[in-house]
Amino acid sequence: MPRFQLDFISLQSCGLGAQFPQWLQTQKELSFIDISRANISGEVPDWFWNFSAKVYHIDLSQNYFRGEVPEFTERVRLTKLDLSHNNFHGPLPHFSPNMMTLILARNSFNGTIAPVCESLVMNNSLSLLDLSSNSLSGQLLDCWRYGKNLQGLNLAHNDLSGEIPHSIGDLANLFFLQLQNNSFSKNLPSSLENVSGLKILDVSENSLSGKIPIWLGESLSTLEILKLSRNKFDGIIPREICQLKYLYFLDLSSNALSEVIPRCVGNLRTMSGEEEAPSFTYGPYADYRIPGMFVIKGNGYDIFFRWFFIVIDLSDNHLSGDIPEEITSLTALIGLNLSRNHFTGAIPRKVPHENQFETFDNSSYVGNPNLCGAPLSRVCSDNLHDDMIDCSSNNNNQLEVHEQGENNNWLEEFSFYISMGIGFNTGFLLFWVTLMLKTSWRYAYMRCLENMGNKIYVFAAIRLRKIQAAKTVSNCPN
Predict the structure, then answer these.
(1) d(CA 400, CA 404)
(2) Whether the Cβ atoms of residue 171 and residue 153 lie closer than 8 Å to each other
(3) Beta bridge partners of 22
(4) Which residues is 162 bridged to in the sheet?
(5) Which CATH superfamily is domain 199-397 in?
(6) Is 184 exposed, middle or buried, given 0-12, 13-18 or 19+ CB atoms closer than 10 A?
(7) What backbone phi and psi angles, to 5 degrees, belong to 335?
């Protein structure tokens, strides 16, 4: 039996093995416990749940624990509990009045969220609640007026149903709201326009219907991610969406939207590279990685390198008319999916295809039989004429250069190379001297290098995913 008494213990990623560390039973003075990612399995022993009244932080995430979880109403010092990525089951536990962070995601909890509502009545501190990827069911109770300090709410990937309650709009401090992959129906509650600081709104993969409300653009000016895909929204894409200058991920796919893409789409300043959205941090919990997925042509990717996945997905709707020329100003776009609509005419020739890590291929536009132009194989007559002129012009230029090259003598060539060498060395020296003397330029250059490295990483990840998908298809039996 150890003779020491610890106050703080962090054994994360230590690979403790299958058995729960029994020596912890001797520690009566602990206030901080972190044994996440330790490869422990089985049930958590009863004696552990009777932990010291001094404990304010418990993290058992990313292990293989199973069994039910007791109530925590009497643990008044406990402010953070993370049991995510395990196999816990049973009803949700009630939590203490001082709980600030409760993360129970990726388990097998079932039943309703009634224990959460009952605990919120007595709790004025909860700021982060993540119950995603469980087996919770029933309606989302209208109790959120008691959670006014909530900054993050994730109930995604459950079986919740009914209407999204009006009291969600009372969460005035909310940064992100994730309700995707449930069975919510009817309209988005108009009270959400009161959550003016919202940065992420994801209600995709539900049965929501009606028009896309104009207040999304008028009132939620800080939105960075807006996902309404795989619902039953109809009508037009409101022009007010163009007011979201920080928006870098817009997914309205798989709905029943009609008419044209608003020409004001060029006003999306982050997508055009004119506006840098503020770095997303979740209050004091900067280490909390917001769980979520986005899709580019059927491939899922974590929201992680957010700056390199600036995306518009309007696929699988009933949109029509020309693709607006204004979309060519969105030079920061990495993913554009307009497939399976009713667009007509030519794809704007200035849509940047070289910057997109091969996400702007034919599949971005397929399913629009009256659309033509690169990268589609269907050639527009005007484009063909322009291409012929360009080809003729290029041939003439090449001939002139060739004739001029034959007339150059060795002295001119020698002078050219000398001048080029002097110019390069001078420019190279001035570049590094400037970086040494100007701090802001030096920081900008380092950020550029970091961004370039991240882009290369993302490109490699996408290519690897395509290769793996191709291998999977080739290995499938006929």
Answers:
(1) 6
(2) yes
(3) none
(4) 184
(5) Ribonuclease Inhibitor (3.80.10.10)
(6) buried
(7) -125, 130
CB neighbours of 32 closer than 8 A, spacing ≥ 6?
A: 7, 8, 9, 10, 55, 56, 57
Contact (CB, 8 A) for 239 and 266: no
Which residues does 432 contact at the CB level (< 8 Å), separation at least 6?
none
Cβ-in-10-Å burial (0-12, 13-18, 19+) of 448 comes to exposed
d(CA 343, CA 303): 30
> What is the helix, strand, coil percentage profile of the chain, to 5?
30, 20, 50
| Among 315, 336, 320, residue whose Cα is nearest residue 271 | 336
Beta bridge partners of 184: 162
Structure tokens at 3: 């003779």
Place of tokens 């704007």: 348
| 411 vs 370: CA distance, rounded Å | 58
How far apart, in whole angstroms, are the C-alpha atoms of residue 227 and residue 290? 15
Instruction: Decide: 167 and 142 in contact? Cβ < 8 Å.
Output: yes
Q: What is the pLDDT of residues 188-206, one digit of tens each?
A: 999 999 999 999 999 999 9
| Of the candidate ranges 107-121, 253-267, 304-318, 444-458, the one whose mean pLDDT is the lowest | 444-458
Residue of 130, 55, 126, 134 lying closest to 88 (CA atoms): 134
CA distances from 34 to 12, 55, 62, 98 (A): 6, 11, 11, 19
More confident residue, 415 or 149: 149
SS3 state of residue 12? coil
How many Å separate Cα 460 from the centre of its chain? 19
Q: How far apart are CA 343 and CA 364, in angstroms?
A: 12
- Cα–Cα distances (Å) from 2 to 17, 27, 49, 215, in that order, read 20, 9, 20, 61
Report d(CA 2, CA 322) in Å as an integer.
Answer: 75
Query: At residue 78, what are phi and psi to the nearest 5 degrees?
Result: -70, 115
Please tell me the pTM assigned to this model. 0.76
Cα–Cα distance for residue pair 285/294, rounded to 1 Å: 23
Q: Strand pairing of 159-162 and 135-139?
A: parallel
**Chain centroid to CA 261: how far?**
23
Could you read off the pLDDT of 444-466 as tens digits, one per residue? 677 677 667 666 766 676 667 66
Q: Which residues pair with 227 in a beta bridge?
A: 202, 251
Q: How far apart are CA 305 and CA 268, in angstroms?
A: 20
Measured over the CA atoms of residue 251, residue 255, residue 261 and residue 267, the dihedral's sign is: negative
